[in-house]
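Entry 14. Ran structure prediction on the chain below.
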Amino acid sequence: MTPDPASPARGSAPSARPAAVPLTKEHEEPKEPGPPGHEAPPPPDPAAGERDSGHRPHRPWSARRIPAALVASVVLAAAGAALFDVVAVRAGRPAAAWRRHLAGELAARPVDDVWMLTGAAVAAAVGVWLIVLALTPGLRHLLPLRSPAGCPRLRAALDRDGAADLLRDAAMRVPGVGNARIRVRRHRVKARADVRFREPQQVRDDLTAVLDEERDRLALARPPRIVVRVRRRTD
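Output, structure tokens:
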């Protein structure tokens, strides 16, 4: 038998095989640096997004339960009494004494009578009051907050007393402040502080800076202006 020429002979060196090429990660070219002085863009301003979308947060509208209940009660009582008396007259009974007296007074008194003018003034005042309630949102103790970016219809509000407590806590952390009183209004925040030590002007500057920072953290839709007054207390 003749040896197979394809099979290597015994004792001979193995045939060379192609070496496996290791897989390497592609070299990523470094990005070209930006121009000198180039910085990352600042974070988007939520207030700017609200201005662009044309939406400004407003106070939530009050349900006006008490005025509505009062008006409904008066109208129901008057209409019910008049309807009952009309039905009684249609049934053959005489009209009620109060209705006869009211009809006689309205027919006998002139237009310029004191009681007529007083009644007209009261009716006009009640009408103006109802119109004002219908055209104003109410809930003046609530401060609207800014809507987050991407959710312009999300509404939230902060109570004035809660905002005053947060600002007072921030004011008490200022060195030299012994006592602080905060009153929050729609357009202005009044802060009064008693200075126990340090110069009053320095305490006033630090207090103004701290209150400005805390007011910005509240994310109010219309940040009020802060007015700070300090006085030295030695007792």
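The longest strand covers residues 177-184. Will compare against last week's run tomorrow.
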